[in-house]
Amino acid sequence: MFNNVTIVGVGLISGSFALALKDKGYAKKIIGVSRTKASTDKAIELGIIDEALPLEEAVRQSDFIYVAIPVDATIPVMKQIMNLVTDKQIIADAGSTKFVLCNSLADHPMRKRFVATHPMWGTEYSGPEAAVRGAFKDRSCVICEKEKSDEDAVSLVEKIYKSLGMHIAYMDPENHDIHAAYVSHISHITSFALANTVLEKEKEEDAIFELAGGGFESTVRLAKSSPAMWAPIFMQNKENVLDVLNEHISQLRKFKSCLEKENYEYLVELMENANKITRIIK
Amino acid sequence: MFNNVTIVGVGLISGSFALALKDKGYAKKIIGVSRTKASTDKAIELGIIDEALPLEEAVRQSDFIYVAIPVDATIPVMKQIMNLVTDKQIIADAGSTKFVLCNSLADHPMRKRFVATHPMWGTEYSGPEAAVRGAFKDRSCVICEKEKSDEDAVSLVEKIYKSLGMHIAYMDPENHDIHAAYVSHISHITSFALANTVLEKEKEEDAIFELAGGGFESTVRLAKSSPAMWAPIFMQNKENVLDVLNEHISQLRKFKSCLEKENYEYLVELMENANKITRIIK
């Protein structure tokens, strides 16, 4: 469907996306752009990209440009790309925050060639080695400000995501960022904090963690996530993340108070309420 | 190896244990004891137990009695069992707390027939339907106060756990409870609290959680766990759980402060420190 596709960033998301584009026959050639030569070398070796080029050159050669880099870097890079593209090219991003980005690009004359997307899939790993086949399946992809993008651009991007097995949700950037804080960003913060809690203890006592089992592993695995990727997300979504974090700390304090006061009944009530999460995750 | 084995409680742990005993050829007949007829009926239907009997009758008929019920109920039930057994019988429990139980049983004349164990495996599900084949594999099993149990009892219990693929760790009950607070109990509390955080938000806005993806699911899945099982654990291990919970809240506050003050560098530092968790979980 495309001749050349450029992915900016050759990591977990862009790499998995590139593999899918190739597998589904959407791209003849995939060009990778990265500040780090080691990353593009690795991506070529892994068959994720066909060649590495500097951004300008890559954009000129491509029908479709997909940007998946830390959200703070996305803004200047996206402006640079928009300054280069024509009415025939399509751009999309995959960032975990949408409000600041959409606002920054709102007045650009080529805004209509850009589709603001957030495919809600990921793992705790990063870099080209983290890219996997079959990613994105059965997950949601949020598209923001659909009305600000050209119809041909939106429908092509939707078609790609749908063919990867994603269902599309439309949201304005503000709402996206609120929801992302609740269903993704807070989980990462609690995992990071839980890891630090346990590592603090580890300083005191060696070798106690041979016990760490399945429950611990699943609540803490996101603590392995990349700070370079996540710190800018938390910062850009600061207000919403702080709202959720304050609520979460106050929920933890309820548990604390139950234990301190040995209020067994209220403790059970808190847990029974938490059980209702099966409404959201089966 | 045994003729008859009794499991007290016919749920996730005891059920999975019973299935394993049968599969490994350790038991000819498994007797189930439960306050709830629906549970033993279900356990018979699922092939977990061969018959259901009242506690006294079951204990009299059994070579080995395995108790996996909420930790507050374990103490009186264990005393009742100890009052019934002879020198030929072996008892073990699977409880997630060890200090209060071991102390309560310390002076019982049949203490030596009891092995205090905690196989560190579980899922967020409960009841006989939650029992699975192949459970326990590659996980740790803690045995406490090994020296207070008869050698034949300890070595048989060890042999069973090892044959399920578990590695045995020896600890005194105090240390077990500290470590369990860090590697298991806190994960459950953070999950319960995270679920409540998100459900609090859900009250305000409908249908936002179609977005909930993999990261969220893994940090919150323990929130589906049984309050009847976990409330007594938190209560019995109150002091240790409060220590960890206080540390965890203070770690979360560090993230909060970074965001409030836009201290990007310290935020990255906190996350890089959290990344060291790969030392503990690969």
TrEMBL record, chains A, B:
One family name in Pfam for this protein: PDH_C
Prephenate/arogenate dehydrogenase domain span: 3-282
Keywords linked to the UniProt accession: Oxidoreductase
Enzyme Commission number(s) of this protein: 1.3.1.12
GO biological process: tyrosine biosynthetic process
Entry's transmembrane regions: none
InterPro entries tied to this protein: 6-PGluconate_DH-like_C_sf, NAD(P)-bd_dom_sf, PDH_C, PDH_N, Preph/Arog_dehydrog, Prephen_DH
Enzyme superclass (EC): oxidoreductase
Gene Ontology MF annotations: NAD+ binding; prephenate dehydrogenase (NAD+) activity; prephenate dehydrogenase (NADP+) activity
Name of the protein in question: Prephenate dehydrogenase
The species this protein was found in: Ginsengibacter hankyongi
Taxonomic classification: Bacteria, Pseudomonadati, Bacteroidota, Chitinophagia, Chitinophagales
